[in-house]
Amino acid sequence: MRNRLCFALCFLAACATCRPALNAQPKFANSDLDLSASPMRPFIEAFSVDRANLLRYYAVQLDPGRSERMRRYLTDWRERLKGINFDAMPQDGKVDYVVFRNYLEHELKKLDFDAKSQAETAPYMPFAATIIGLEETRKKTTPLRAQDAAAKLAALAAEIENARKTVDQQMRSAPQEGVQQRKVIGARAASDVTALRGVLRSWYSFYDSYDPLFTWWANETYTAADAALLSYSSFIRERVGGLRPLPEPATGPAVQAGRSAGGGRGGAGAGRGGPVPGTAGARAGSTDDIVGNPIGRESLMSELAFEMIPYTPEELIAIANKEFAWCEEEMKRASREMGFGDDWKKALEKVKTLYVEPGKQPELIRQLAREAEKFLDDHNLITVPSVAHETWRMEMMPPERQLVNPFFTGGETISVSYPVAGMTYEQKLMSMRGNNIHFSRATVFHELIPGHELQGYMASHFRPYRSDIGGTPFVTEGWALYWELLLYEMKFQKTPEDRVGALFWRMHRCARIIFSLNFHLGNMTPAESIEFLVDRVGHERENAVGEVRRSFAGGYSPLYQAAYLLGGMQMFALREELVAPGKMTDRQFHDAVLRENRIPIEMLRAALSGQKLTREYMTTWKFYGNLK
Q1: What CA–CA distance (Å, rounded) separates 151 from 237?
Q2: Which of 91, 159, 400, 428 is deepest in the core (most CB within 10 A)?
Q3: Rounded to whole angstroms, how far apart are CA atoms 269 and 193?
Q4: Blockwise average pLDDT, block size 10, the chain, 628 residues
Q5: Which pairs from 364-369 meet CB under 8 Å and 24+ separation?
Q6: Run of H or E residues at 218
Q7: What φ, ψ does residue 218 adopt, rounded to 5°?
Q8: For residue 201, how many other CB atoms are within 10 A of its CB?
């Protein structure tokens, strides 16, 4: 293996062929190879492989055995880390050690949080152990007696009916206070029942027809139990959560696995195929499906510690409000240049009318992408590998996904949100206004190059093992948002209309911090979040609904929405430390950041600056300064 690597390096060093580029790029210099040699890499890779194996085997999230096994696995690895000679490692290894240790501690705390959350919904599912037990028997391939299975299914249907009666009786005598909390728990419980239905379906499908005697005995009782679960899930949503019932869920074994990861690089999101996360029960013009799961201050503090953010939620909201005020002043300046005085909302309304006609949005996106790429070249800001430049693609976003993503999303594939024929007149107009030329100019590069597309490409090439224990949204989204901050400072947006478009998004990111953290603190509801986006930021109402629905639909970390601007500000502060005093050029800084992959930005800072790290290192970097 070593000889093959030496041969490859010698061959590349001798190659005189220039690789294609945005404009001109250097000759091969091994800059596209991951030559890092962290002594922690084998440990992290071994951990990640076995963790994935365990999660595939213990696939039922409600199974207490899953939690017990993962706790044991994480604890064993935490103990194993103590035997590593930390002081003898190079900086690369020390960074990996701190990130890995931080990850293990966070995952253990998360198990505690999940246990508490499941304890709140468990009273609504006294029959869960029966379903999990059946799946456990199948998983271990324990011989099954068909008649016994049919009897268990018959008993299960009776258990579900008894649970319904019990819940109905409790609700009749329940006090009126705490309605919002019941709504949250009811939505979670209904979701859990749906997941258990998927587990039962997977169990039944394993034997059905492959064991003729099983089908002969169990078909009728399974059908009854399945129907009872479907009905009970709707009952919980309506009776406890006060919500509309969900449509028929997707079938197949995948339902039991819980969350699923998106394909491709860069996190482009769901494509045309398959169910769209967060859209179950969603209807255009309706907000009654938006519930969310506020986690509380204690859990927020735990998440902030994991992300190495040394501020409290309240301090972060204060930072967001300060940044919001700055944006409003900048908006007024641009508004005056457009002839609207200090009434920046009138200027914003004007900008929203500057959209392309239906069918022309893909052409605009490509034009704006090339415009940004030329700006990067002209200012020597970053190295863009030719394959990354060559292979990004475009697709049109399905209308059902636009209920969650009213704006385009990106990565290797940029998914364009724009009206389709079946939308109402108002929905079409809102979509075009919300994806106008100047809004789009401010964010196409966020999604493509140098944003998520380039980031995803580099993450797949350099230190990919870190994505399994890092993967922080403060880098994923912070990196792309950082470019919005930097290009604004570099006057990429030349006209006041362009500046209004860029400032709208920065205000939007300030708002995300404010409403998402306040939601988890119990200070704002989803409805209040929507009104905040409409009244303070100037969102189209349908777009605001889609934004809040996406924020609280699940599948995101509770800090994800706050991570955009906060991560961008962290990255900007790091640039001030390294580029402003001349320690690195912009290009060196940006290339180096991408080669470190997605780890907490404080650890990125340690990697690039060489600051001293200890085995028990804790976050200390006040990237925004001390708040008074």
Answers
A1: 28
A2: 159
A3: 26
A4: 39 36 47 87 97 96 96 98 97 97 96 94 96 95 94 97 94 74 90 96 96 96 97 94 65 34 37 41 59 91 95 98 98 98 97 94 94 97 94 89 77 87 88 92 94 95 93 95 98 97 96 96 94 93 87 84 97 98 97 96 97 94 89
A5: 364/437, 364/440, 365/394, 365/408, 365/414, 365/416, 365/440, 365/444, 366/394, 368/440, 368/441, 368/444, 368/445, 369/414, 369/444, 369/445, 369/448, 369/449
A6: helix 212-235
A7: -100, -15
A8: 20
- Is the sign of the CA dihedral 293, 294, 298, 304 positive or negative? positive
Residue type at position 116 = K
In a shared domain, residues 415 and 536: yes
CB pairs under 8 A, 24+ apart, for 47-53?
47/77, 47/100, 47/468, 47/469, 48/465, 48/468, 48/469, 51/468
Q: How many domains does the chain have?
A: 4
What is the span of the domain harbouring residue 221? 125-257
364 lies in a domain? yes
Token pair recorded at residue 418: 């724009």
Token pair listed for 122? 């468990």
Q: Note whether residue 289 is domain-resident.
A: no
CB 558 within 8 A of CB 519: no
Q: List Cα–Cα distances, 483 to 169, 407, 456, in angstroms.
A: 56, 18, 15
Tell me: do 413 and 527 sit in the same domain: yes
Residue 221, both tokens: 């009782």
598 and 541 in a single domain? The answer is yes
Cβ 502 vs Cβ 351: under 8 Å:
no
Inter-axis angle of helices 496-520 and 541-552, to 10 degrees? Answer: 40
